[in-house]
């Protein structure tokens, strides 16, 4: 039998990246964490944690962490039928893209009781990778097909608007949104994984042309809006975040007739689906209020 305390230590070291931080999370000493990891590695007969900065789980360690998470969630589901068990809130780790978090996910999470949420923030184009590795129990992703061992439901499409301030347009695009202007006007990019601006530019260019353009890097959904308002650059902003600014004229839509819609799906581990069913219902309900129908 696997020791729950040792399994919890393994998951904490991997997710926090160090023995000290794992110890703080579990309210024990770093020495106790070290002893638990060593005992688990002796039992498994293999290395489970690669020591370093940060410490990360080996493939065998990730498999054991996935098992640990599944057991915790299954026990949570059992407690729903047997209330006298009164378990502590279970930590539920899910992958969410930043723009969904900034527009509609938080109210959904607030409706669901019995969990402490551990959110992995990553681009919708790669968030499914966390689910494939078993590091999360669910993910909001742009990939329509769930990984093996998972199920999924469509949520809708998050609509993006290419926006900039009137002053920015007067400076950088006085003759309109042309290909020449875009090669000179600074844009905003969330991270190297963010392809939204590139998709919009290439679609605008048409004919298979590929335009290079200068860009700031700013990993913040609200920071994107503020940067556009201040005239720092143009960027693809979720419509729910900028609708008021567009209506007031503080921001201008660079292509009102051509928004960019990004389809989103909620995918989750099949084994623990009963334990996360309430979250699935909440996500679908709040997504329907904000996202565009697919």
What is the fold's blueprint, element by element?
Elements: H1 4-16, H2 19-26, H3 30-44, E1 49-50, E2 56-57, H4 59-81, E3 90-96, H5 98-111, E4 115-121, H6 127-132, E5 138-141, E6 150-164, H7 166-172, H8 179-182, E7 187-189, H9 196-205, E8 215-217, H10 221-230, E9 235-238, H11 239-248, E10 252-253, E11 260-269, H12 277-290
Helix pairs in contact: 1-2, 1-3, 1-4, 2-3, 5-12
Provide a descriptive summary of the structure in words:
With 294 residues, this protein is of the alpha/beta class. Among the domains are: 1-66, Arc Repressor Mutant, subunit A (Orthogonal Bundle); 158-262, D-Maltodextrin-Binding Protein, domain 2 (3-Layer(aba) Sandwich), CATH 3.40.190. Helices cover 46% and strands 20% of the residues. The protein is built from 12 helices and 11 strands. The chain has helices at 4-16, 19-26, 30-44, 59-81, 98-111, 127-132, 166-172, 179-182, 196-205, 221-230, 239-248, 277-290, and strands spanning 49-50, 56-57, 90-96, 115-121, 138-141, 150-164, 187-189, 215-217, 235-238, 252-253, 260-269. Strands 3, 4, 5, 6, 9, 10 and 11 form a 7-stranded mixed β-sheet that branches. The protein has a two-stranded antiparallel sheet with strand order 1-2. Strands 7-8 form a two-stranded parallel sheet. Helix 1 (4-16) crosses helix 2, helix 1 (4-16) packs across helix 3 (30-44) and helix 2 crosses helix 3. The longest helix has 23 residues, at 59-81. The radius of gyration is 22 Å and the shape is elongated. It starts with a helix and ends with a helix.
